[in-house]
Amino acid sequence: MKKWLLLAMLAVSGMANAAIQLGKDYTMLSTPQPVADPKKVEVIEFFSYHCIHCYDDDPALNAWAKTLPADVSFRKEQIVWQKSMEGFARMFATFNATGTFDKLHRPAFDAQIKQRMDLSKPEQFTSWIKQQKGVDSAKLLQTYNSFGINAQVARATKITRDYQIQGTPTVIVNGKYVVVTSTPERMIQVMNELVAKARAEKK
Questions:
Q1: DSSP reduced 3-state for 45
Q2: pTM to 2 decimals?
Q3: I need a labelling partner for 30 at 20 to 30 A (CA). Which of 74, 162, 165, 166 fits?
Q4: In 32-100, which ranges are continuous DSSP H helix?
Q5: Contact between residue 106 and residue 76 where contact means Cβ atoms under 8 Å apart
Q6: What residues contact residue 188 under an 8 Å CB cut-off, 6+ apart?
Q7: Among candidates 169, 165, 168, 175, which has minimal Cα distance to 42?
Q8: Residue 109: which residues within 8 A CB-CB, separation 6 or more?
Q9: Which DSSP state fits 169?
Q10: CA distance 139 to 5
Q11: pLDDT digits (tens, 9 = 90+) for 128-180
């Protein structure tokens, strides 16, 4: 079994947990943010396609997400700190809008990190997407340039600011707990404990 999958399974089961401390393993957002579904514990990973740490952590976080119970929601958000990053948010929103995220997310990461393509640039993205097999590139590009995606890019900029994201990856649990870790292993453990903490607070 792959190491990251085992770690994810251990974290969710509670076997790998260690006591966490405020100020060491997690901090609090100065302004808590509303969650999408109050009935669930919400976990958000703020990432960027140009972030090598996000790239390295991606398999472990994805494996963790697949094992979550029904009362926990997980999603990723591409951050936008400056205008030059809007292309990443546009690409990410397009994948989600066209149902191609599972197929194209990791290949896009590979292209950005390993092949050193700059997919934040429309011309680079256009060239890359036309090379991907099994997708309707014309339809996808139409979505990429649509008004709806423009709105999603604006939303990404706002949510980056609202959640006070200063580095990537940043994981926030239930709109208020900010995970502070140095390794993917510890990140998963802290996330698991904070999920339990947030769940207990709902009772």
A1: strand
A2: 0.89
A3: 74
A4: 52-65, 86-98
A5: no
A6: 7, 8, 11, 16, 60, 61, 64
A7: 175
A8: 49, 54, 55, 58
A9: S
A10: 35
A11: 999 999 999 999 999 999 999 999 999 999 999 999 999 999 999 999 999 99
